[in-house]
Structures are given as C-alpha cells and as structure tokens.
Amino acid sequence: MMVSQEKVWFITGCSTGFGREVARTTIAAGYRVVATARDKAKIEDLVTNKENALALTLDVTDNVQVSEAVKAAVEKFGRIDVLVNNAGIGYFSSVEESIEIEIRKMFEINFWGLMSVTTQVLPYMRKQRSGHIINFSSIGGLMSFPTLGYYNATKYAVEGISETLVQELAPFGIKVTLIEPGGFRTDWSGRSSVKTQTAIEDYKETIVGQRLAAAAQGGGHEAGDPVKAAQALIEVVESEEPPMHLLLGKDAYEWIFNKIDALKKDFEAWKVTSLGTDFE
C-alpha cells in the first residue's frame, strides 16, 4: 500500500500491545511517528536510529504531560495528522463486587485520558483543516460481557462521544474512526487488567466465577494478530472514505451481528408499545 509518509502519527500507550505494534509498523512504513508511554525507557528501542520517530513520556491522566507531549510533537514535526488513542486498561469483576477506586482509575485512563489527549490535539487539526482520530474501543464497547461491566461502560462512553465527534468535526475535514477488536494476542487480560476475585458465594458457581478463573490464566491463544491489526489501521488512515466503526477479528464480527439480531427481535416484539407512546 502507498502511504503518505509526510503524515505525523501521535500514538498513546506504546510500551506494549496494540500501541507498540502500531508504532513499530508505522515507523517501518516511513511515517513520522510520535510514540508515547508512561515509561519512556520501554519505547526507546522503537525510535533508536530512526530520524522519523520520537519517543515521549506520557501519562494520559496527567494534563500537564499531555500538553507538553503534544507541543513537543508539533515542535518536532510541525503538525499532527493521525491521533491514535490506544492507552487503556481492563478490569475484571462482577458489578456488585467491583471496587470503586479501581473503577475510577480505569475511567480516568480509558475515557478521561483519551479525551484529554483528543482535546489538546484538536486545535492543531482544526487549524490544519485535516486530521484523523483513531479511538481504540473494543467489541466490549458495542456489547457487554459478564465480569467486564465497568470496562464495558468505559468503552461505551468512548463510542458515544466518538460518534458525536464524527458529526462535530466533519466541517473541519477531521475524521474519526472507532477500532473494535475482539480477542487479540496482546496479553491484555494478563498484563494490563486488574482482577477482583469474587467474594460473594452466590457468584462463584456462575458464569462470573468461570470467567474470572479463565481471566486469571491470562491470554495467548486468541485468534487476533496484532501485526495485522496495525496494518489495518494504516489501511483505514490511507482510505479516502474511512469507516466510523472498524471491527477487528472474526469473533468481533460474528458477535456484533448476533447482537444486532437480538436487538431487532426485541424491538419488533415490543413495536406496538413503542409506537403507542406518542400523542394521538
């Protein structure tokens, strides 16, 4: 694929997982890339001897660091064309047993951190009258799973505000795409997810207990290939008509159509009641 090498990518959460692979792939493709992570030492290898790459320290929950990183990127390369909001964590627990401090920490990273970076980058994109925001959501932002209720909530929030941004930013030539992966071999469940083991006896023999036990074993057998996911992001960025939503993985594709069918069934079953609530 031909790439627009003058484009500048700004990527969060590059120390591991999707972020690292997207940074590695875009740098190799010749783009100018700003790779960021809370621990800069973990991404120095990505940029060593690469004139088209810059590594920066960035905790997305620190507004001062966000401002400094965005300014440093513009000072280095003159612009930001593609923002990849990848930084995020997971949390496994039943809703009833979830711990508030862990929930709020996840919202600060997955939602408020994403929005902090976005709102700091937007003035530059508006001035350019161009840009592309790539927000990592999840299949869990389109449908919910047991033990991931609050994680689902963070991703539903990302979905909702991104769909608003699509409409608000279109007049400025800025595009927005939501990335919705299924299971990928990024060690997400083992590396960057907190797990609160069930303490309420009623949950232990249910799907909650089963899923927590599976999560505790970590991943490594998922069908999704992070390298192919990174290549898919380049395809989206180079497309003249990029999608608002991009499902990644066969599992995500199949799950969402099952959800759509279930929604249709529910809506049609109660159609008379729904339509009967308007004034005559």
Structural commentary:
With 280 residues, this protein is α/β, with parallel strands linked by helices. It has one domain (8-275): 3-Layer(aba) Sandwich (Rossmann fold), CATH 3.40.50. Helix content is 49%, strand content 15%. It has helices spanning 17-28, 44-47, 63-77, 100-128, 149-169, 188-191, 201-204, 207-216, 226-238, 250-269, 271-275, and strands at 8-11, 32-37, 53-57, 82-85, 90-92, 131-136, 174-181, 193-195, 245-248.
Strands, helices and their partners?
Blueprint: E1 8-11, H1 17-28, E2 32-37, H2 44-47, E3 53-57, H3 63-77, E4 82-85, E5 90-92, H4 100-128, E6 131-136, H5 149-169, E7 174-181, H6 188-191, E8 193-195, H7 201-204, H8 207-216, H9 226-238, E9 245-248, H10 250-269, H11 271-275
Parallel strand pairs: 1-2, 1-4, 2-3, 4-6, 5-8, 6-7, 7-9
Helix pairs in contact: 1-9, 3-4, 4-5
InterPro entries: NAD(P)-bd_dom_sf, SDR_fam, SDR_oxidoreductase
Protein name: Short-chain dehydrogenase/reductase SDR
GO molecular function: oxidoreductase activity
Summarize the entry for a quick read.
This protein is an alpha/beta fold and 280 residues long.
Q: Mind telling me the CATH superfamily name? A: NAD(P)-binding Rossmann-like Domain
CATH level-3 fold name = Rossmann fold
**Largest sheet: number of strands, sense, barrel closure:** 7 strands, parallel
For the termini, the CA-CA separation is 57 Å
User: SSE order in H/E notation?
Assistant: EHEHEHEEHEHEHEHHHEHH
Structural class: alpha/beta
Pfam families: adh_short
Protein name: Short-chain dehydrogenase/reductase SDR
Family: Belongs to the short-chain dehydrogenases/reductases (SDR) family.
GO molecular function: oxidoreductase activity
